UniProtKB/TrEMBL annotation:
HAMAP family: HisC_aminotrans_2. Keywords: Amino-acid biosynthesis, Aminotransferase, Histidine biosynthesis, Pyridoxal phosphate, Transferase. The lineage of its organism: Bacteria, Bacillati, Actinomycetota, Actinomycetes, Kitasatosporales. This is Histidinol-phosphate aminotransferase. Its cofactor is pyridoxal 5'-phosphate. It comes from Streptomyces thinghirensis. Residues 29-359 form the Aminotransferase class I/classII large domain. Its EC number is 2.6.1.9. Homodimer.
Amino acid sequence: MTFGIDDLPVRDELRGKSPYGAPQLDVPVRLNTNENPYPLPEALVERITERVREAARDLNRYPDRDAVELRTRLAEYLTETSGYAVDEHNVWAANGSNEVIQQLLQAFGGPGRTAIGFEPSYSMHGLIARGTGTGWISGPRHDDFTIDVPAAERAVAEHRPDVVFITTPNNPTGNAVPAETVLALYEAAQAAKPSMVVVDEAYIEFSHGASLLSLLEGRPYLVVSRTMSKAFGAAGLRLGYLAAHPAVVDAVQLVRLPYHLSAVTQATALAALEHTGTLLKYVEQLKTERDRLVAELRAIGYEVTESDANFVQFGRFEDSHEVWRKILDRGVLVRDNGVPGWLRVTAGTPEENDAFLDAVRELKKEQE
Ligand code: PMP
């Protein structure tokens, strides 16, 4: 018998669990992880090279621990795009919004505390809760995947969670959450006890509606988290950030590792933020492609959940995993998130989307 993980004294709650991760398969069309299909423009690649070369000369030193220049530029981006003014004291950055979420749970969750999410939603919220010793509560949704507000309010009142997660647009379902829902849950959370409400806006740039950033006004327990992985097309950079009351930024600094954002990451992100115009230029095209996927999938005869993101949830299938495999057999990788009866496809380039649509059209014909 070989020595394995079960022979190690790992924490009980980790026993028998698998690491998170979508399959990284080498197939012609990969539409499974909500990445932006377009590589960075050449001018930006040049600028990153310049900035990183400069940073390399100082790599004998630790980076700016508080990433002040980067937080200032991120605050400017948020202010310009949302019309709601924030500055560097409101903004915190980390290695992907996953790390932002982890730091929030380290600061506000932890042993003896709980967090709630309304599922199906981004599964890492629950997994990071587990990793930080925070109890996880699965809150309700309607059959159409919108949040069941009265039931959600009751769940918050009953469990009195320390952290409430609201993902808008939601992953994997794609639908946006109205501001009124966030406000109702914020009120419910504060009535139960002061608890943090984290609005995960990873896909907000693709939404038909606006960011909920302005809800931060007068709401010190609200946090909006963002990422450069999706609309910015920089998933490989690993840069996520949050906007909140400055006290929240003080709190996450208690748990962040010193120098968590490398000088190379900061230099790359700063270069990217000089080019937001070019970076975001594909967002409109991806929104058009997303809307085309919704329309064509419906025309083929599938059910589709309304999408404000760069992906579309479609169904319904008796055996979604079997359908996932058949689409893969046709060279297209989509995502089986474990939502019974549904699959998720990321909007790719027009050619990739055509390949996907051809594959599912063929499947539908086979079934008839
Ligand atoms: N939030 C949501 C809703 C996501 O879907 C993702 C990525 N799949 C993330 C956060 C994390 O993204 P990243 O760590 O790349 O910023």
